[in-house]
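pinned: reference chain
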Amino acid sequence: MSDSLLSYETLVHAVAGAMGSVTAMTVFFPLDTARIRLQVDESRKSKSTPIILAEIAKEEGILSLYRGWFPVISSLCCSNFVYFYTFNTLKRVMVSDKSRPGKDLLMGFISGTVNVLLTTPMWVVNTRLKLQGAKFRNEELHQTHYKGIFDAFSQIIANEGVGTLWNGMLPSLVLVFNPAVQFMFYEAMKRKAGRGGRKISSLKIFLIGAIAKAIATSATYPLQTVQAILRFGQFKSDGKGGLLGSLRNVVSLLMDRIKRHGLLGLYKGLEAKLLQTVLTAALMFVVYEKITAATIKLMGLQRKLKH
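pinned: its structure tokens
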């Protein structure tokens, strides 16, 4: 167990996963900007992603499409490092002979839970920084004034309490099924594509990653909208804390969204989310596989040279 936990190869997977996610998110970051605006700002009309991006660039400047890039990338880097490290550690411990979809799903769920508990505060801060300075259509949303990541942490703790840093944790824990389902489909399709020792091309990895993420995102999108609203911190809750209070907030937000915009209102911004998350995940897996394969190959060569 200790060998699996402190394995050099596990560390390689974690670093490769973090680097893959940072590269992919940087390329497709404006799509995430469009997605979060549509989720949080209810008064903004749901239009096609290019139109939303053009509106934001015209009203707030072209650089606003990359507003909050650093805190998002920092959070994503830590988040994916934790996820890939946990997933590959469990893979070494739990998978003795053959991988199975059930085991992949369980490993994904455990990895996601560990990730949520450790990194939710970073996501709360980066959601607020990403929306700082945005021109909202909804007049009930007010501006925040944070000077950076550390200032945001200190202001939130001082003004709203430490517990606020875990806002949206309940939907995040439920959303653990998103990466769990994604990894289950990804591992299953990758095993099928590589059956008989066949080499899997970068294009195949890209397509496998895209399909896996599209399935997972479509299934869990309404909860992702609730998660974004709770992280932004301007939802007026009933004031009750604990698990029951969090559950009420989630149900209340879902019902309010349906009441105001109909069932399709739960999927506002899905187009932008699918574009961003599917392309990001697909590119991430390509970079991840390439870095992992190259590093492990180099490690193998180094071992041979030593002997």
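why pinned: The mean pLDDT is 84. The radius of gyration is 20 Å.
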